[in-house]
Batch of 4 targets.
Target 1
Amino acid sequence: MSYETEFMKEFEAWIKTQVMINEMALTESKKVYEEDQDERAKEAMIRYESRLDAYQFLQGKFENFHAGK
């Protein structure tokens, strides 16, 4: 396997992990904000949601790549 292929495979796996982590963090931040109305949790929600959007965008690019688009 070439270096580029190995890199893409590992990068795609890392993106999947980041999506999972940020989804969990977003869910927990929402729960904390709903329970305590903690402004720090609200700010964290915004950050996690923004990161999640970026990682999901990259996931879409990988899906297009695998589909040959």
Target 2
Amino acid sequence: INLDEIKSDWIRSSLVLAVSAMDAYFVDKFIDSLIPYLRKFSSTDELVELLEQAGLNIKKALELMVKQRPTRRIRTLAETHLANHVTQRTDAIDKLFKAYAIKDFCKHVQGLSGRKGLIKRIENTVARRHKIVHAGDLNLHGRVQKINAVEVLKQVKDIKVFVCKAEELISKKFGE
């Protein structure tokens, strides 16, 4: 047993889990904000399109009018639709929150953070996660790439800052 390899695998795992947690946060936050958004603001074209993709057409909307808890059913439709939606990349996050009329969501989050390179660092972290998950973190020669625990810790902290500032932005937008 090579302890250095095991340690490196644990470091890789922490990076993968941090990106997965960020992904889950954005989908969950979007779903949690759906009904409050609909109650407070009018729908956007992007939100209507997303709900249509989720199965909320005119026929379904009319059916919901006579059922109990129609907003819960709308939320469930959106939740089911977004269950396999990947929001690891910043462009996917931007597209998702554009449905709530927040253009360039990630740039706003970066602005709140006061860190100009935050989006680029998040994108680099997600790219490394993809190399780990989809290619076993192998280089072009088929060897496992080195991983630096200190750098991964910084990347995990970047994700934390990004998510915390996203939460702050969403709370401001919806008055939560």
Target 3
Amino acid sequence: MEQESPVNTAIVPWRERATYAILFFLPIAGVSARHWFSTSFLLFVLLALPELWRRPWNLDRRERVLVAILALYFVVFVISALANGWTYDQTHYGGRVLRFLVAIPIYLLLRQLPNAALWLARGCVVGGFVLLGQALFDVYVLHLARAQGIYSPNLLGPVAAFECAFLLVLWQIDRAWRPVMAAAMVACISALALSTSRGGYVGFIGMISVWAAMRFKGWRVAGAFLGLVVLLFVAYGTSSHVRDGVDSAVRQLDEPLPSDIGSDGEALPSVPARLEMWRVSILIFRDHPLLGVGGGNYNKAARVYVEEGRAHPEVIRHSHPHSAYFETLVSMGVFGFAVFLAMLLFPIYVFARGYRSAPETALFGLLHVTGFALFSITDASTILKGNYITVWLIFLLTFFGAHIRATVGHNP
């Protein structure tokens, strides 16, 4: 993978080394040092700005499509916000969505670096141990109920799942470091367990399933899935955090539906609350199908249904519907939702189609998009929070650029 360099590069050595350094350190302390991800993103922007004036870009057709999707996501957000009357909320959210547009010059930089994906994945080796240290500190020193890092269990858990999945791919590339990588993977899994992030658990299972399906053939696939099942049972049986998280979700699924509870203002458990927010999101979408209600306006729009007695008051105790899919549907309507799906499905298509030509870069990308897509089912932070957006974009652009380099001439 390191030797393939079909993209011509004129990056000066110090910029290349600086970019590799930021990529390496990106996964290490993002959940332990506040603004680590955002600061890294800003540094990428500063390093990448000269690429806007460098001509020609010589973008592959696949690259042009990805760049267009990123730009269109920002454009649809702006159009939706203007159509609904631009307010402070739109400015607040718009600053984060702007990252999708600013990511374009970052991609122009990353695509020229032959070892970008490797340095990012190598950072996950150190990152695994830092994640475990943070999780142990939270639970056994601070005596928190869940490992949450500087932000939230819903960031720490998914980041741990991501890093473990990427280490599985790196395992096939950097064979000399396998003992260290094995320990780092155990550290990531332990940190994920201590986070009690149910979304993290689902995303981890999904990524490992994709890895097994792509990596093995015949009876080995069955063996890999059997190993995954055994791992899940062991985790459930030995970790009280995993067991409590799973049992809590199962109990809440047995709770009465919000329509049966009534609208007396009593708070709903997390699972029924999400179901009610998703139901209300569909109502909002039906009334605002094309461009939605504008970013940051979910709470305001949902309040109408609460006042009419058509929704439980729980839905307006939250600023978003706790799902990136429903958030996009509500805030940007069918056009924004279509662009969001394209941002997921097009990279999957590119990575899957080029798997035979470049299995390592394809697998990096497939695991990343799979995890993000699954995390986004029960969490809107994936597209609303700057730190999560940074994780999504930088890993995606790094792996996409590496895959294009490895498949130029094989996958037109």
Target 4
Amino acid sequence: MVTQNSNPIQLTKADGIYQLTYFGHPTGYIGPIKVKNRDRHPWRAVSVHGEVKHCYSLESARQWLLAAYH
């Protein structure tokens, strides 16, 4: 039986920080960069492995976290 929320990739938001999970396991966290930066990367993604990447969009941060998960 397939439920309505059967997607293995879940992005949830709490206190302004997004958590990305894959099959119930955390893959990383995404948060807005609040200081003005020259590169105009408004999002910071941090993987559960300690890697950090600044991204142009929430979607690109989500995709990077999925690619960095191993």
